[in-house]
DNA sequence: TTATCGGACGATAATCTTTATCGTTTATAC
DNA sequence: GTATAAACGATAAAGATTATCGTCCGATAA
């Protein structure tokens, strides 16, 4: 149902107060067809087939918009620069989805269970790294 | 025990077949004193106080060496470029520590339990994102 | 339908992070 | 002490992302 899809995307844009542009709509539709965890460059390469004149900057800007709107999600909250872990204790992380702040939380404090060391595909488990995604106290106030 | 610390670091280097240089040793000692999740730039700023002539490239190279040797650990396995999640299902990720390949694993398949939505510091939980760190099948063969 | 206006676009420069290059210096083994 | 390979510092280059800015277009209302 192309018409229905179009209406859905139109509504989606209205909900988020953004214009329904040709580039934005094609980008959305192309992304819907993709699998795995594509990078902006990979998305760009696909969209270019349908809108050859599109700019990489437009792809970045709209992916960010989609992520902010909750239409798509980024694989990792901390994909920025390299960070070194200085906490020797067994622990996991609380990551604020607003300000990206990373706070340690002890393994016991988090209270997860059941670590299998056999996983599909013959994957050999070394350890679990849990990110608790949410809103930190400061960002809840604002 | 400075002498003892020095011997420890010397042994550490010998185990990993790397030379004991002044820069490398100061870098190691400075990092040991740091807390949280510093970036290479932040480490560089600290080390520069003791070895003003050190290069940022040297900091990067040695942090990588330390991480490879298991002396320090990076906070996130996927801190590279932005990746968009295209899998709608509730799932987590298996991340290969050798080749960095990311594979989906269903939430039920992983079989974790207990999601608290109250965490220390008034952190409001949205979701859990689990990275299972390990070695993928391909890298196990090689 | 048309005029208006703010948002969106494309091109590209700029920024930020990380890596590669290369001549010089230094640690290690003999 | 000398030879050799590794490590260093300076800096260019690469890769990813963002900022800038002139132009264009979609949304709104006359
Ligand atoms: Mn930590
Ligand atoms: Mn996934
Ligand atoms: Zn926050
Ligand atoms: Zn692998």
From TrEMBL, chains A, B:
Transmembrane segments: none annotated. This is Fur family peroxide stress response transcriptional regulator. Its cofactor is Zn(2+). The lineage of its organism: Bacteria, Pseudomonadati, Acidobacteriota, Terriglobia, Terriglobales. Belongs to the Fur family. Gene3D superfamilies: 3.30.1490.190, Winged helix-like DNA-binding domain superfamily/Winged helix DNA-binding domain. Keywords: DNA-binding, Metal-binding, Repressor, Transcription, Transcription regulation, Zinc. GO terms for biological process: negative regulation of DNA-templated transcription; regulation of secondary metabolite biosynthetic process. It comes from Tunturiibacter lichenicola. It comes from the Bacteria. GO terms for molecular function: DNA-binding transcription factor activity; transcription cis-regulatory region binding; zinc ion binding. CDD domains: Fur_like.
